[in-house]
Amino acid sequence: LTMNNFIKITFILSLIASCDMETVIDLEIPQDPPMIVLNGVLDTDTTISVIISNSVGAFSNTNPAFLPNAEAFLYENGSPVGQIFPDTDTAYQVNVYGDGLQITYPMYVYKINHTPITSYTYRIEVNHPAFSETAVAETKIPDDINIFNIVIDTTLDGGDRTRLNFSFNDDGAARNYYRIRVFAQCSKSFEDEYGYFEEYYWDGDVDFSSNDPSFPQTNFFELDEPYSFVGDEVIFSDALFDGQEKNIILDIETYEYKFSYCDTVNIEFSTFSEDTYSYYTSLESHLESGEVDIFGGEVVSVYTNVQNGLGALISRNTQIIPLK
Predict the structure, then answer these.
(1) How far from chain centre, in Å, is Cα 289?
(2) β-bridge pairing 147-156 and 135-140
(3) Contact present, 178 and 270 (Cβ < 8 Å)
(4) Alpha carbon distance 209, 219 (integer Å)
(5) Residues 250 and 228: beta-carbon distance below 8 Å
(6) Tens of pLDDT, residues 103-156
(7) Do the Cβ atoms of 163 and 178 come closer than 8 Å?
């Protein structure tokens, strides 16, 4: 045997020996105790409703469940408003995904006949006999924003592209956060090659495009794409225009549904509180990270502002701008 062959044989034998040996280590992973979960979005155009459930551990085989016998109380600017009671007449279907399976189960809400007021602060406290601590969450309704200089251009690309243009003044006294969505109801009638009339309908959110530097870039790696953002909603902050007048330009590819075919076109413009912005951005990062295995890195935690519990109580001020 040469020295090289001896080294090769020794290395192979060491690999075989290491592959045949297994070490089993039992790990006792501490389970987090269940907590009250409070979730709700307070808006200026709807009465207050929240979901109250319980948390489950990461290795538990159970699902979060609605807590029907919790005591929940609403406070407005520190003063008590009243108790929030469960409404079991209407069930919301919740989907849970894992291991390639989808499980659907009902979840109900707690309601109170009270509509939030702009710039007011709201606190909700939740007690339950199964939990020793009171879950508390607080949020402040954002101020109104005045939208002006609304311009609609339907002549671009022979009418196949509509441009929406509007402005607003950002409040320089605080960091502000916004969301924009576009909604449309449209129909189109035409005669086919056989002489029959057909009609198509569109009803729902509309995709739009923009090169606004304040918007997140969704087409960063697509160099041939003329727009840096494309989507059916955009969430952004005033970091680049704090305290200034801001102009927004949105382009919509109309395809078969030109602006003239639509009965209703609305811009939904929402002002977010800081906790709302933190929740949505962390949720987006959490969903983008996907399922993470033991070697896949860290899971992005979703923002929570609930003391002695989990979930998020967030708020927004939504304005509907009717364009048609």
Answers:
(1) 15
(2) unpaired
(3) yes
(4) 10
(5) no
(6) 777 888 999 999 999 999 999 999 999 999 999 999 999 998 899 999 999 888
(7) no
